[in-house]
Here is the input.
Amino acid sequence: MFNVFVIHGPNLNLLGVREPEIYGSMTLEEINRMLQELAEELEIELRFLQSNSEGDIVTAIQEAAEWADALIINAGAYTHTSLAIADAIQGVRLPAIEVHLSNIYAREAFRHQSFLSRVCLGQICGFGAGSYLLALRALGEYSPTLFSD
Ligand code: DQA
Here is the structure.
């Protein structure tokens, strides 16, 4: 079984009530349920974390090295600030896909920079909750041989 760790960063526990015009009206629980359904179709095993704490996310990524085959991460605002999360992803050498509900490039300039992109296979943003589903599908298609350099 291919094991994927889905990480939701700060404030994503507020989905559904938080700026629905930007992030949509689905709750995090609904998004996770949708992901779970697709994962079963793709025969992928998922584990989930939502944390508002940078250190907890770093520790969880380190621990994922023991069991996960890949990461899907929406680091929320830490995307734009956290060298520590980027270092953790690079350190564990797990293939990772960076996800955002909103199109961060169509928003404020401070959201245009991602510390994570450099250490991820790729980034999917702008498709609302669909960004997560696209990331999971991308991992379903992922083949290490296509990505090795
Ligand atoms: C976000 C975009 C970030 O800029 C923001 O801080 C978030 C959510 C998104 O999913 O669109 O918390 O990662």
